[in-house]
Design brief:
Number of helices: 8
Order of helices and strands: EEEHEEHHEEEEEEEEHEHHHH
Radius of gyration: 31 Å
CATH topology: D-amino Acid Aminotransferase, Chain A, domain 1
Shape: elongated
Largest sheet: 8 strands, antiparallel
CATH architecture: 2-Layer Sandwich
Number of domains: 1
């Protein structure tokens, strides 16, 4: 399926059979099927399609007697047809964006459901306000196909400010290991609309300080992705990262070709200048010198 999007619906279900949804999230920015940027609500999604996905998730959860916090994950085509991929029967990494737009503590609800407490939230109580975006800051090198970049953190200063949330376990002196998940932090930002949310997220990422021998992060890559025209226009798909990488490779190749051409031109000009100088010197040596007396007589005259 080409040019598809990855959109998921968050549900909460208790043991009494109550099932509600908390809206949807777009998780289309991925590398090797691993999510990198998530946002809620999903941008550029027709409202009828949005509502149909909510209804499908609620029906599915009710049909199987699902209990707890879960996520129904869908692939959405360019024609806005959607197909179920899987159901994640757990809390998702990207749950903060849903918490920011709904004001509902999903972790708390999951625990109370597990304790056997009925949901006190009804579908009519769920109201999504504004837009939230989350970026996963990983200890990876995007310039080496997202290879792990482990090492000891000598600096780790997360961003702050109004409507910015950072979930992290890292700190200065902590060693990023090479064997497990490379996630360092989740940065989430909320704003009344999408442009403001993206601007706030970019500002937060610009303030995030991470350093250490051998440590590389995805921060700069995330900022470039947020600024990509397709992402800004909400026209991106799961192929955005690969497309952006191809664009960057083409840009670098073109820059290298221009640099090589300029170097060749400079070398040719230098060679031409040297040849001209050698020719001039050779001409001077071949010309007969006038006797000194003639030169003096000419001056006297």
């Amino acid at each position: 399926m080409e040019n598809a999007r990855h959109v998921e619906v968050q549900v909460l279900c208790d043991r009494a059979g109550t099932v509600i949804h908390l809206g949807e999230r777009d998780c289309s920015v991925q590398r090797r099927h691993q999510k990198l940027i998530e946002e809620s609500p999903a941008p550029n999604l027709p409202q009828p399609v949005r509502e149909a996905m909510w209804a499908a998730a609620v029906r599915g959860a009710s049909a199987v007697g699902f209990v707890g916090a879960g996520t129904f994950e869908f692939v959405v085509t360019q024609d806005h047809d959607f197909y179920l991929m899987e159901i994640n029967c757990r809390l998702q990494v990207e749950h903060p964006v849903t918490e920011l737009v709904t004001g509902i503590d999903i972790v708390r609800e999951q625990i109370t459901i597990a304790a056997g407490t009925p949901l006190t939230i009804r579908q009519g109580d769920v109201v999504c306000r504004g837009v939230a975006v989350e970026c996963r800051v990983n200890a990876e090198d995007p310039d080496r196909e997202f290879a792990p970049a482990p090492g000891e953190l000598t600096a780790f200063v997360p961003p702050g400010g109004p409507f910015v949330r950072v979930d992290t376990h890292a700190y200065p002196g902590w060693r990023v290991g090479p064997d497990y998940d490379s996630l360092l932090a989740k940065v989430a930002a909320w704003a009344p609309d999408r442009p403001a949310a993206l601007t706030r997220m970019d500002r937060a990422l610009s303030e995030f300080q991470v350093a250490g021998p051998g440590v590389r992060t995805t921060i700069d890559f995330l900022r470039r992705t947020l600024a990509h025209p397709l992402f800004q226009a909400a026209e991106h798909t799961t192929g955005l990262v690969a497309a952006a990488a191809a664009e960057e490779a083409a840009r670098l190749a073109a820059a290298a070709a221009r640099a090589a051409e300029e170097t060749a031109e400079e070398t040719a000009m230098e060679t031409a200048d040297e040849t001209a100088m050698e020719t001039a010197e050779g001409t001077d040596e071949d010309s007969p010198a006038r006797p000194r007396e003639e030169a003096v007589s000419a001056v006297d005259a």
